[in-house]
Specification:
By secondary structure, this protein is of the alpha/beta class. The chain has 4 domains: 7-128, N-utilizing Substance Protein B Homolog, Chain A (Orthogonal Bundle), CATH 1.10.940; 143-177, no CATH class; 185-237, no CATH class; 240-443, 3-Layer(aba) Sandwich (Rossmann fold). 45% of the residues lie in helices and 14% in strands. The chain is built from 17 helices and 13 strands. Strands 5, 6, 7, 8, 9, 10, 11, 12 and 13 form a 9-stranded mixed sheet that branches. The protein has a 4-stranded antiparallel sheet with strand order 2-3-1-4. α14 links the parallel β6 (280-285) and β7 (306-310). α3 (38-53) crosses α5 (73-88), α5 packs antiparallel against α6 (94-108) and α6 runs antiparallel to α7. It starts with 6 loop residues before the first helix and ends with a strand.
């Protein structure tokens, strides 16, 4: 086994400490990566995401082998990193992992490296003696609590899912959320077809089932920015569930005016702009820095029919009745993208769902005034919680008598069989996409 260096593990340790303080993992990894080779950054990134993905299980396993009160936060993090490598990284040699984790402990928790060594080597001895691998945590007798501990989720989240899906399907969803997923690509129709892009890529992909623009890699290496066709603007990174905005909007008549009221980095704005060169897309967001990045991305993709508006949709509502189509891709819990953002498992609460649902309702009401008579409003969130999806859509209709839900016949035929509860809910374990909710409304003439 080749010698492993401690730097990727130290970078992962530092990144995880910053994530615990509220920073996004990708932001911390960018900062840590300035001191690492691309190969070491790849290992540090994998360590961070796998540790976050299995944090609850790793914490339970650590505590089962550690006397109460013996681990402060730094020692706990070192042990979780070491356990994650032994349990979830097949290509790292066991003894090298133990050695490097002990070295990390010596650097960040001096005097505790002996304890780290004892716990990791003890776990390996258990495996050699024929114990279950990965080790099972003791059952509590509470099905929701046991599922949460086994698959590393918050208990309140698992209980909500079990009420909606039942225990068996809940476990399927939890497993899907723990599966690392390559980024999905969206072809840029202004630069070629999906088939042409697929032929150019140096790795295996499959066309997405629901989106006619998507390609799902079987595996991936390096960043999408390094893949053939990126610099030429042949593709963007966008999950299949998000790409469906192109189907929901449909081909727009030339001269149409479209507002994306919470555009963020503008993936959906750019998709609509690429599909409808004769329409003007206005991307509005309160974060001017995001809009600057959107403008750069529009130039890369050759989308010259998009403009930005740096303002808060609530504080500065758009002109009344000015748009044929308004999109509200609202801020949400992000529970639907846990497989890509495992840190979201640990920083959301039930109160967040209620707070965000209230905000989503306000944003929909603010956007409604911008829809011209006969125009349409599209609502989306990357979450499958009822509070943020069906309940918010139903509340909007109750409060806005000038709007009606589009009937199933107005939805794309390919999506009709998936409709329920007043909209389209997508699930990672059912459709293989991120979790998402879409609703379509139309303003009366």
């Amino acid at each position: 086994m080749r010698e492993l260096t401690a730097e990727p593990r130290l970078a992962a340790f530092r990144a995880l400490k910053e994530v615990a303080g509220g920073r996004r993992p990708e932001e911390s990894l960018v900062a840590q990566g300035l001191l690492l080779s691309p190969r070491d950054l790849g290992l540090a990134t994998a360590l961070v995401y796998e540790t976050l993905r299995h944090r609850g299980y790793l914490d339970g396993l650590m505590k089962s082998r550690l006397a109460a009160g013996r681990a402060g936060p730094d020692l706990a993090l070192v042990l979780e990193l070491g356990l994650a490598q032994l349990l979830f990284f097949d290509r790292l040699g066991d003894h090298a992992v133990v050695s490097e984790t002990v070295a990390l402990a010596k650097a960040v928790t001096p005097g505790r490296q002996g304890l780290v060594n004892a716990i990791l080597r003890g776990l390996l001895r258990e495996r050699e003696a024929g114990a279950a691998w990965p080790p099972a945590l003791p059952l509590t007798g509470d099905p929701a609590r046991d599922l949460a501990r086994r698959h590393s989720y918050q208990e309140w989240y698992v209980r909500r899912l079990m009420q909606r899906l039942g225990p068996e399907e809940t476990e399927e969803l939890l497993l899907a959320g723990n599966k690392a997923t390559p980024p999905t690509l969206r072809v840029n129709p202004r630069r070629g077809s999906r088939e042409e892009l697929q032929a150019r890529l140096p790795f295996e992909t499959r066309p997405t089932a629901l989106s006619p623009w998507g390609l799902a890699p079987a595996s991936f290496d390096r960043r999408p920015e390094d893949w053939p066709g990126f610099e030429e603007g042949r593709f963007a990174v966008q999950d299949e569930a998000s790409q469906l905005v192109g189907l929901l909007a449909g081909p727009l008549p030339p001269g149409s005016r479209v507002l994306d009221g919470c555009s963020g980095l503008g993936g959906k704005s750019l998709h609509l702009a690429a599909l409808n060169p004769g329409s003007l897309i206005t991307a509005q967001d309160k974060n001017a820095a995001r809009l600057e990045l959107l403008t750069r991305e529009a130039a890369r993709l050759g989308c010259d029919n998009i403009q930005t508006r740096a303002s808060d949709l609530l504080a500065a509502p758009p002109p009344p009745g000015a748009f044929d189509l308004v999109l509200v891709d609202a801020p949400c819990s992000g529970l639907g993208v846990i497989r890509r953002r495992p840190d979201l498992k640990w920083n959301k609460t039930e109160d967040d769902l209620r707070r965000l649902a209230e905000l989503q309702g306000k944003l929909l009401s603010a956007a409604a005034g911008a829809v011209k008579p006969g125009g349409r409003l599209i609502y989306g969130v990357c979450s499958f919680s009822r509070a943020e999806g069906p309940a918010t859509a139903a509340r909007f209709l109750a409060e806005q008598p000038g709007f009606q839900a589009e009937p199933p016949s107005a939805w794309p035929v390919s999506l009709g069989g998936l409709l329920s509860e007043g909209g389209l809910t997508l699930w990672p374990h059912r459709q293989g996409t991120d979790g998402f909710f879409w609703a379509l409304f139309k303003r009366s003439e």
